[in-house]
Amino acid sequence: MLEVLATTASVSSLQCPLHKSFRLFWSLHDPLRPFVPKRVTGKTPTSLPMHVRPQHAADASDAPSQFKSSYGAPPIARSSLVLSALGCVYIGLSTASSSWYLVQLAPSFQNDLWWVGYSASGHQALMIDVFNTILTTQASGAVNILAPRWTMDKSYHDPQSTTEIRRTYARRLVLLDLTSIEYAVLNLRSLTPTWTVSMSTQTCWVDLNHEFELALTAARQQRCVDLYQSNGAVYIETVLRNQNWDQYIQMYGGDNGIFTIAIQTWLAQVPSGQAWLAATAAARRTTSVAQEAAYWHAHNLTSFQLQWQNSFQTGVGETILVKNALGLTYEIGLKKMSQLDLSWPSIVMNCNLLNEMLTMQALDRSLVRSATNSYTQPPVINPEDLLGLQDGDGNYVAQIGLFRATVGPYLAVDMYYIDVPPSLLSLYNAFQDALYATLDNQPGSLQATLDAIPAITFTPTPPAWQDPTLNFYGGNPMCFVYGPLPYVQDT
To answer: What's the domain of life for this entry (predicted)?
Structure first.
């Protein structure tokens, strides 16, 4: 191969005085061009080093890959190789550590609380049972849930867990715990007119000044004075002040409306009644919740307590918020019980304001005791007679007669929920604490002894009742249709 080094040739006008023609090859796109030694790159473009070979050699192949430089390939910097190696090591270690971290977190990722081993059918079911048990006797305050007292005598191995819900819990909330004035005002303003006349309460007065009396009997009216003056639920004013007056009148007022006939007509005939109607109609749109509560307090009201009834089962839904160590909260449902309509045998005890006003509408009488057309005026109407509880001779017999003689007339019976006496609650808590503390110290023998005790139904009967000649009626004064039996019946 003929190789000629021409250091001063021009790329555009190269000529060689040789006997054979030569073709000049210059790779303008050679990737090694930037690595030409400094002694070469320092020259001008017209004095670059070139390799010249014969024509027949060039014809053999024009592929740039056959071009060879006399200088050879430049070396790659050692630092670049080191950095590349370190980068590969970093990526490998990062991937491995991330995978290891995910493996470690996998048990925590199995539930929303990020608690290792936590399960809905086990730990969560236990927590629900513990808090439901606590809430039966304690509505607020700090509780040590790790105390032996909160041990549950129950297996949590079933995949589908259940919890016990007591119906008395919802009743206690509505009839005893949630009776504050502020709570009542806020919720009365959210009631529809339909519910305002269907609440389980017996009214005593129209107004907070005790001028217009409403009790169905004189004895109950005196009981209102003695016992119920501080209860806002026995006044019509407390309810209507928190209603949209126009909507209420549209439903129950107007010509021949039940409110019109039973109450409004008489109030409109006396100056104090007219003033009451005007003030009550404007109260909702002119007062805030705080102002209304202050108005109640100014009239010495301390609560808004309804009465027990079995027209429907009170519904309740309850949840708790659990916070983990990371500050994340999770909502857990404790109980959910739907409202259900029931048979309502308690209507014979008291029948709520709606039925009283409907009765007055049918009789065209006023429910206000002082009205000139009141049902208490001649001819006097006894609402109890409308129940048809007498026999053919007009007498109250059997358990009906016994109840009236000892308690009082039907339709005028107050049935308030009575709280557990504090002394009894303290005794119960002390017994539970002592029992579970002992079980914690003797987990085997004592638990086995307790589990061996069979269920026993106690039917305590007074000695005087143990007479084979006696017949016994049921102990429920609201049920009149069943006949006597030769044994004592459950109450």
So the answer is: Eukaryota
